[in-house]
Amino acid sequence: MLTRRIIPCLDVKAGRVVKGVSFLNHRDAGDPVALAAAYDAAGADELVFYDITASSDERAIMVEVVERTAAQVFIPLTVGGGLRTVDDMYRMLRAGADKVSLNTAAVLTPQLIEDGAKRFGSQCIMLSVDARRASAAGEAPRWAVFTHTGANARPTGLDAIDWIRRGVELGAGEICINSMDADGQKQGYDLELLRAVSAAVPVPVIASGGAGSPEDMYRGLADGLADAVLAASIFHFGEYTIDQVKDYLRERGVPVRGA
């Protein structure tokens, strides 16, 4: 049985890791290089590094911060934010990333997914999707895709499930689905959204947005059918450790890496 992955997320703004609620009211969480080293030592399975204002600021990702972060870890590192071309992806992989995450640029230029997959392999391409519930009470559930996260979030007119299917058809090898409604709320992942995404595509799905406890992470894996769970606040501010989460999951029969 495949083990489930625990993935801390480093949302980086102006060279510092931050965490907010629904992408707003950011609180400083520390230096990305130091945090990356700590999570590597603590038994995290992977790390995700997002330069969260690169797209909205219309600038390139901070390569030097990525290089310093990658130098501290020996686990897979995914990097995203402001990647607009295949050459941008190449620079991140050269800087030490194992995978690149595409979000806004993929919506604006879907061909970028296919071009990246052809050059580097689908295993290197993660499609990250920020989705907000769009259905009213009593309607069949549906979610809308947004780009340019935070105060600058922009609706795309895309249905999240349709867009994710298309992204996988173009070559994305993994999906990170972030619930904008649940982000930073620490009330649990949007399990209905997770189940819909997991049922729609044959590639691994990472749950993002809403983890407040090991129980939430267990629900994301067991009930949401995710392959991995991503979290930020509960790790950055010392509420739980990687070991505590993994012990909780093991006790409930979820296969995880480590002793």
Outline the structure in words.
By secondary structure, the protein is an alpha/beta fold. An eight-stranded parallel beta barrel has the order 1-4-5-6-7-10-11-12, surrounded by seven helices. It starts with a strand and ends in an 8-residue tail after the last helix. The protein is built from ten helices and twelve strands. The protein is 34% helix and 27% strand. The mean pLDDT is 90.
Short description:
With 259 residues, this protein is α/β, with parallel strands linked by helices. It is 34% helix and 27% strand. 50% of the residues are buried.
What keyword list fits this structure?
12 strands; globular; 27% strand; 8-stranded parallel barrel; alpha/beta; single chain; 259 residues
Can you lay out the helices and strands and say which pair or pack?
Blueprint: E1 5-13, E2 16-21, E3 24-30, H1 32-42, E4 47-51, H2 63-70, E5 77-80, H3 86-95, E6 99-102, H4 104-108, H5 111-120, E7 125-133, E8 143-147, E9 154-159, H6 160-170, E10 174-179, H7 191-200, E11 205-208, H8 214-222, E12 228-231, H9 233-236, H10 242-251
Parallel strand pairs: 1-4, 1-12, 4-5, 5-6, 6-7, 7-10, 10-11, 11-12
Antiparallel strand pairs: 1-2, 2-3, 7-8, 8-9
